[in-house]
Amino acid sequence: LEVNALPVAPPATVSRCGMVYLEPVYLGWRPLAKSWAATVIDKRFEGVGAKVLDLMEQLIDPALTFIRKECKEHIVSVDVNLTSSFCSLVDSMLREEHGVTPDTLERMLPKYIAFAYIWTMGGNLMDASMVKFNTFARGVFSSFQGLGLPDDLTIYDYKVDPKTGDFVTWESLVDPFTYAKDVPFFNLIVPTIDSTRVKFILRAQMDGGYHVLLGGNSGVGKTVIVQDYLGQAGEQYVHQTKSCSAQTSSRALQAFFEEKLEKIRKNLLGPPSGKTFIFFVDDLNMPLKEFYGAQPPIELLRQIINVKDDRNGGIYDLKKIGLFKKIQKVQFIAANAPPGGGRSVVTPRLLRHFHLINCPDLSNASMRTIFASITQGFMQDFRPEFHEMSGPIVDASLEIYIDIQKELLPTPSKSHYTFNLRDLAKVIQGILMVEPKNIADADEMLLLWCHEASRVFRDRLISVGDRDWYDSKVVTVLSSHFSRTWQASQFVDVLFSDFMAQPKPTPYVQVTDMEKANKVLKEYAEDYTLNLNKPMDLVFFKDAIGHISRIARLLRQPRGNALLVGVGGSGRQSLTRLASYMAEMKCFQIELTRGYGVNEFHEDLKRLLMQAGAENKPTVFLFSDTQIIKESFLEDINNIL
Question: CA torsion sign, 40 to 41 to 47 to 52?
Answer without folding.
Answer: negative
